[in-house]
Amino acid sequence: MTKKLTAKQMAFCEVYVEMNNNGLAAYKHVYAVKKDTTAKVNASKLLTKANVRAYIQELQDKATSDRIMSREEVLYRYTILARSNVKDVLKFNGSTVTLKDSEELTEEEAYTIQSVSSSKGKTDKLEIKQVDKIKAVEGLAKHYGLFNDKGSGNESGDGSGDDSGNRESASDRVRGTISRLKKR
Are residue 116 and residue 159 in the same domain, yes or no? Predict the structure, then answer.
């Protein structure tokens, strides 16, 4: 069992990770040491301790997992985009269309907006571009194996290799849905 870290050792580890593994700078910051040689020697000693190295590894792993999307998050974001609707971000009032106030938008709704621009002139112009939901649907369809990229073989995914002639394959149904969405 490893020995617990002191508050200063924990702070050293946290600053060390924040400063991209700069032991000298981290030690000087936490322990308020002026001399570089003293800080360098003591930082090296700290970094040889198993419990310090373990805590640094834990912090680095957490930082990595916070920066990189999990598979579930990728699917979740694809789903948000695929299900997005312009009515989620715009207000319609007769012939007037306005963007919802940013405070009213959920994180998911804001995520669907690619860009917003406005121009003033004879008529005020507001342009809202949403992300490409067709690409999101295609990404989800590929993930779930609804497309057969080679154009042959079993598209139903049941292992039979038979689309039963007259039946529309899952891939064809998805492509039809995508085609209908593009026409909107």
Answer: no
Task: Give domain status of residue 80, yes or no.
Answer: no
CA 76 to chain centroid, in Å, comes to 9
pTM: 0.47
Taking only the tens of pLDDT, the chain with its 184 residues reads 457 999 999 999 999 999 988 999 999 999 999 999 999 999 999 999 999 999 999 999 888 877 787 788 888 989 999 998 888 888 888 888 888 888 888 888 988 988 888 888 888 787 888 888 898 898 888 888 887 655 434 444 444 444 444 455 666 666 676 666 666 5
Sign of CA dihedral 57, 63, 67, 70: positive
Residue 79 lies in a domain: no
Is 81 a domain residue? no
User: Which domain, by its residues, includes 52?
Assistant: 7-67
- Tell me the residue ranges of DSSP E strands in the chain: 90-93, 96-99, 113-119, 125-130
